[in-house]
Amino acid sequence: MNLTALTTPAEIVRQGFLDSLACAPLFPPQARRVVDIGSGAGFPAIPLAIVKPETQITLVESSRKKATFLRHIARLLDLTNIAIRPARAEDLLREQDMLGAFDLALGRAVAPLAELGPTVFGFLRPGGTFLAQVGSGFGVAEAVEGLESIGFDLAGITDVSNEVGTPGHRILSLRRRVS
What we know:
Low-confidence stretches: none
Strand order of the largest sheet: 3-2-1-4-5-7-6
CATH architecture: 3-Layer(aba) Sandwich
Largest sheet: 7 strands, mixed
Helix content: 25-40%
CATH topology: Rossmann fold
Number of helices: 6
Number of strands: 7
CATH class: Alpha Beta
Oligomer: single chain
Structural class: alpha/beta
């Protein structure tokens, strides 16, 4: 199955697993319910579910092929802390139990932050955190300004070490305002 542009074992380890795990230290201590929007091949959610078994992670993926793969991997690895939701994120926001239900949201290369921000906002509880993984060519100032206008505050920017993850990657930590 071709689910990602990563092709060599070294790319998969570095840009898939290690880059995903760079989010782990940024999890707020109270984060118990996590949503990964546009999960694709399972990065960052699957590696994080392995190292954060105390969290319940919901993977949102609209592609049936990818959602089927994610279910297979979750069963194969016996990841009981994962739920797969095969739907568009915007459609899930019509379900009352999904609105404001998550402590933490993850987003990695799924859509421009200007488009993803309002969707993520709907999933997060007030005070919840959004960890957005962005590349080196990403304009942080403009994106943060747009996200602040809808109710997020920038809590920090973490550079992902070139030795560990994808060179130039950063993680934006954004907090949904309480009021």
